[in-house]
Design a protein that fits this description.
Blueprint (H helix, E strand, L loop, with lengths): L1 E9 L5 H18 L2 E7 L2 E8 L1 H12 L4 E11 L11 E4 L8 H11 L5 H17 L17
Helix pairs in contact: 3-4
Bound molecules: flavin mononucleotide (FMN).
Length: 153
C-alpha cells in the first residue's frame, strides 16, 4: 500500500462549485482505482492524502499536479504503508480553520509545509493530525451533498 501527501495553493477565483465538482468526480475515479484519502482545505490551500496501489497513486498524482485549479503542488510525504488511514473514504473532505481549536494545530504546521520549512518529523505530525479527522468526523463524508463544503469561499 502506497501513500502520498501533497500540499498546494488553490487558484484564486475557484469556489464552492468547483470544489464540489472536483470532489464528486474524484470520488468516482478513486472508487474505480481503489484509491482512498482525504482533501483538506484551509484558507485557499490544499493538503491531500492519496493511498492505494503505488502505480495508481503516482499516476493520479501526476494528473492532479498538472491540474489548473491549483499551483505550487509539493509532495510532503511519500511512503509504503501497512494499511490505509482512510479506508472508507474514496475522498473525504474537511474544511480547516485557524480559529477552530480542532484544526488550529493543523493550520500552524500547514503554514510551515507551504513555506517549504517543514521537517520530516513535523510533516509526520501533520499527517497524524489529518488522520484524526477520519475518526472525528460524524458526517458521511463520502456523500458530497451532505458535506460541510458550503463554507468554502
Ligand atoms: C485539489 C485537487 C484534488 C483532486 N483530487 C482528485 C482525486 O482524488 N481523484 C481524481 O480522480 N481527481 C482529482 N482531482 C482532479 C484531477 O486533477 C483531474 O482533473 C482529474 O483526475 C481528471 O483528469 P484527466 O482530465 O487527466 O482525466 C483533483 C483536483 C484538484 C485541484
Amino acid at each position: 500500500m502506497h501513500q502520498l501527501v501533497y500540499v498546494s495553493t488553490a487558484r484564486a477565483g475557484r469556489g464552492e462549485d468547483d470544489l464540489k465538482d472536483i470532489l464528486s468526480r474524484a470520488r468516482e475515479t478513486n472508487q474505480e482505482l481503489c484509491i482512498t484519502g482525504i482533501l483538506v482545505h484551509l484558507d485557499g490551500y490544499f493538503l491531500q492524502v492519496l493511498e492505494g496501489e503505488q502505480d495508481r497513486v503516482r499516476n493520479l498524482y501526476a494528473r492532479i499536479e498538472n491540474e489548473p485549479h491549483h499551483s505550487s503542488v509539493k509532495v510532503l510525504l511519500e511512503s509504503d504503508v501497512a494499511k490505509r488511514a482512510f479506508p472508507d473514504w474514496s475522498m473525504g473532505f474537511r474544511e480547516a480553520s485557524r480559529d477552530d481549536p480542532f484544526t488550529a494545530g493543523f493550520a500552524a504546521l500547514m503554514r510551515r509545509a507551504l513555506e517549504g520549512r517543514i521537517s520530516r518529523p513535523e510533516a509526520q505530525v501533520l499527517l497524524t493530525i489529518v488522520k484524526t479527522f477520519y475518526r472525528a468526523s460524524d458526517a458521511p463524508v463520502d456523500d458530497v451533498e451532505r458535506e460541510p463544503i458550503q463554507s468554502v469561499a
